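hi support,

uploading two proteins for the ticket. first:
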Amino acid sequence: MKIRLCKKFPKVKKLVKKIALSTPNAEIKIKSCIGMCKICKTEVSALVSGEKIHKKTIKKFIKEIEKG
């Protein structure tokens, strides 16, 4: 699973750690832009295997990528 995160998210380092713990087989990269302008600064957002996903909290985001 490929996960691309925006570097503009305030808690990006915390998010990377939580994703790595929940899905150890994920390939995580922090990019300068993932094409979700304005959303990535306020919500947890990422490109997961080419699909745009965004949730209000890190916990909800982790649950979404675990089931998908």
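and the second one:
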Amino acid sequence: MMHPSPSTPPPPGSPERFHLRRDSFAAFAWLTGIFLVIHAFELTAFNLSIDDEIFAYSRPDALVELGRWSHAVIRYLLWDQPVLPFAPYVLFALAFAYAHLRLLRLFEVTTLGPFELIAYAAYAAFPAWLAQLEFQVNVLPVAAGLIAATWAAEAATTPRPWRALPVAGLCLAFAIGAYQSFIFFFLALAIGLALAGSLRGRPARALTAGLVRFAIAAILGMVFWYLILQAFEAGFNKTPHGYAAGFQRFDLLLKDPGAVLAATGHQWLEVYVLAWRDFGHAAAVFGAALGLAAILILMGAAGGARRRWAAAGLLVALFLMPMALNLVSGGRLPLRTYLAVPLVVWIVLFLAHRGGAGGTRRTLLVAAALVALNGLFVQATVQARAWVMHRHDSNLAQAINIRAAAALGADQPARVAIDFHGRIRPKTVYPAVPTTTAGASFFAWDGGSPARMVRLMNLIGYTRFVSLPPQRRQELHGHYAGMPVWPRPGSVKAVGGVVLVKLSN
């Protein structure tokens, strides 16, 4: 049975009569505006996150050693300084809206009604995005990667796809060079398109051919990405960084596959549901909306038992695809790596709505709206935590600067060597999202990193401070034994022209 497309205009008098042509400027403006409203705080504030203090001073080729050569392309040709407010997020909003319009084209949507706009809001607000956008160095490359990944998918679905596969591979290579998780975004999109075709009764042979084309494009994309990476590493005299190697732990999979599978399964639950338990009703809403949509998709599957089982298999594969990297990384990854999860959420809501009748569609519209609202709630909570922590760190840095000046007395050198012992872990009523840095204190991260603390102080204006080399720190370590902890008198003192700050025991 063929189900009506949501792109078919409803009859006169229908509450869903409002619709926008997909290729119109009005549709692009609506999508851009929705994203800007959802992420307005990033545009109007400048809360620094962990590592911003590093990348604000970094060279444009700083991330080539992590395999992200697209960063160098963007920073050398378009945008040198990545740690900035407002402008990168505006460009991200434009790219996000454009990429979504290309995504709608892939799913054969010609007009956007209330559901398409609300489902887009759910997609844009799903809090996996905030874990990515908190790293300002990633904002513009990920924006370009979204466009490149959708272009790759379009090339893989052209009328003559075999000739276009090299183009698809090159586009995907650029997306992977922006962020390696785009390979799973691309493959999740492939599975979503296959599931959409299966639900609409397309022959199994055509669906298989489509998946094969995407698989070939994915292989070409990885090959092109690797070859281009070798050229960038040679050109910039870079060697692979150990951080990237930490995501390739085949030894753990071979040693204890059960533990890796268990960790992967737990994070699968965490990313979709469990990570949001501290944020009101968000976990329940996300879980219920996705569960409802999945059930409705299976109920609406066309054909007999074999086709229903095929649809079920594709649906399971769609949900699991974002976690594919877990199997080779030891079972757990930061939330920011799951670029494909919001896409999966959107695809599931969209396909359930496409195959539903009037009452079911209204229910899914409400479900999508609740996902969007709860995503917005999570984001607002995280931003509140980030604001509080940024004010705490700024105030603490100012207080340390004043106390350091008092400890040095009349002799105030132009460059002040400073060292820290311990850390300060401020508390707030606002919860944190697991595995993210949003709302983390620079004076607590890494167990207390003096170099990170000094770089933050430099970035917010206290440029006279410099870190001590490890050997010099070791020589002065004994002086901390008799010092009280911050903020007591004596917790900051000068020893041989070096300012020592004892934050904790």
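thanks. also noticed: Residues 1-9, 11-15 have pLDDT under 50 and may be disordered.
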